[in-house]
Amino acid sequence: MEVVDLLIKLLSFESVTPDDGGSLAFIEKYLEGYEVIYHNQGGVKNLFLSKQFSMGEHLCFAGHVDVVPAGEGWESNPFVPMIKEGAIYGRGAQDMKSGVAAFVAACANTTAFEGRLSILLTSDEEGEATHGTVIMLEHLKGLGLLPDYCVVAEPTCEQVFGDAIKIGRRGSINGYLTIKGKQGHAAYPEKAINPVHQIAPLLVELAGVNLDEGDEDFAPSQMVITDIRGGMEVTNVTPSSLKLMFNVRNSTKTTQQEVKAHIDRVLKGVEYQLELTQGSYPFVTNRSSKLVTQLAKSIEEVTQIKTKLSTAGGTSDARFMGAYGIDVVEFGVINDTIHAPNERTTIEEVERLYAIFCHLIAGFNQRGEQ
Asked: What is the pLDDT of residues 39-91, one digit of tens each?
């Protein structure tokens, strides 16, 4: 089965989170000769396929088979793949069954490797991700099967195929701030403590403020105000409290403790409560890592493009790899229709992605055989 045919087959599985739609069983049979480990929890299926070719390094490809609901506005059935003018349409075409098809086909066609090749797949990436990759990695740790290197085939390219590899991701800190005051009559402000007036002159030190200067890998960690509310929607009563919400997409230079210290400094003398939660933690793979340099070389070989190394965007399951100290990167097709109606990728991109993964595997193979 050619890689495009494989993608079409994967797109036909209606695998809306957390249902794999039968796709994992299909992939298991497709990769004959690979050892099979399932570790399921909370209605989520997680599959790890691996093959020890010889002694050496462990290279893993990872991703998810689950997709978001199709929604409305499609010109065709989102789970009946359609090819039109060189493009393949279907829910998950970019995010991320194209990547899964490419690395499954590349592993299936590998006959020699200096080490272990593996594939880690989950059906819980588009949801809460609490029963997916994170629990499989813990299970693999107990089995002594954590990989040395991992490629997560999320869609990463921006304008043209091959133009971006993600070598890390920012973390995400959510803040819930309550300014406490004393309710009163608007005609007698001296008898009240107005939290709106308290916070107003201080917003300049909160809204849009950079908490660090950034570096070669990350943009500055910025405090982004997402919601402010208080009062009873009347004009003659000042509020007893004001609630403010914010998010910080943080680099490795700013921690949750440093965000708290900044709030404490700005709001000195103001009565308030602060709750911080960490949705994800930042990570970055060294630019000189074997995985980064070899993947960049493979991209240039196939596309003649010198790719850029990026940490932009939101979160992915790569963050779980980074937490285990695994050298991890993300690379896949162009990202411009994910989660949208008429999601699609191109035949050319899928075939080139497959070629890049084959080249990457061969580059890790010291004998250069495949």
From this structure: 999 999 999 999 999 999 999 999 999 999 999 999 999 999 999 999 999 99
- Of 19, 20, 66, 327, which is the active-site residue? 66
* pTM for the model: 0.88
- Type and span of the H or E element at 10: helix 3-11
- Annotation marks residue 233 as catalytic: no
- For the domain covering 3-169+282-364, report its CATH number: 3.40.630.10
Q: Which of 231, 233, 188, 225 is nearest to 207 (CA)?
A: 225
Active site residue 336: no
> Can you give the residue ranges of every domain in the chain?
3-169+282-364, 172-280
Q: Three-state DSSP class for 99?
A: helix
Identified catalytic residue from 19, 20, 124, 125: 125
**In this structure, what DSSP letter does residue 203 have?**
G
The CATH code that applies to domain 172-280 is 3.30.70.360
241-248/223-230 β-pairing = antiparallel
Asked whether the beta carbons of 15 and 23 are under 8 A apart, the reply is: yes
Determine phi and psi for 30, rounding to 5 degrees.
-65, -40
Q: Residues with Cβ < 8 Å from 120, sequence gap 6 or more?
A: 46, 47, 48, 60, 61, 62, 63, 133, 136, 137, 140, 150
